[in-house]
Specification:
Shape: globular
Helix content: 55-70%
Order of helices and strands: HHHHHHHHH
CATH class of the largest domain: Mainly Alpha
Mean pLDDT: 95
Number of domains: 2
Structural class: mainly alpha
Largest sheet: none
Number of strands: 0
CATH superfamily of the largest domain: AhpD-like
Length: 177
Amino acid sequence: MGMARVRALTLNEVADPAIRSALERQESVYGSVLENHAILARRPEIFRGFRTMWDALDAGSLLGARLAFLVNIRLSGLIGCSVCIGANSILGRKAGITEEELLALRGPLPDGMFCEREAAALAYSDALAASNDISEDVFERVQRSFSEEEIIELTATATFEICVAKFNRALGVEWGD
């Protein structure tokens, strides 16, 4: 692990009280402020944009926390974002994801470990990470398991995780730095 390519703010440098409060909440959940958030705090408007999307995906989720974290952990691993893997694993365990499932998300998915709904969401996530085009077979599988509103949320969850993971990778942000 190395240093991030841009400097994160310390809590004392964060002038916006709402952002400082969000970072302090992270300390209680993760044991420290997530470096990507402390970097985003340098641009409060962008921080608020990211935070708004995370909050929108959490509030009234049609997918449920377990499914959302399965997708996020899978994508984090495919992209190689240690911050996303670490943070999503902590939250995923709280949502009922087992250690065996966490390990399985790192490689080829074993048959039968995940229910059809979860397996369809994970296949869709793999396709989103691998290509700009989603095959009809993959999308039809998703349509069999999800309503259109759920597909919108699933797509937003997955593509936002890809965005965050690539943001962290581009800036060299690592878990535990």
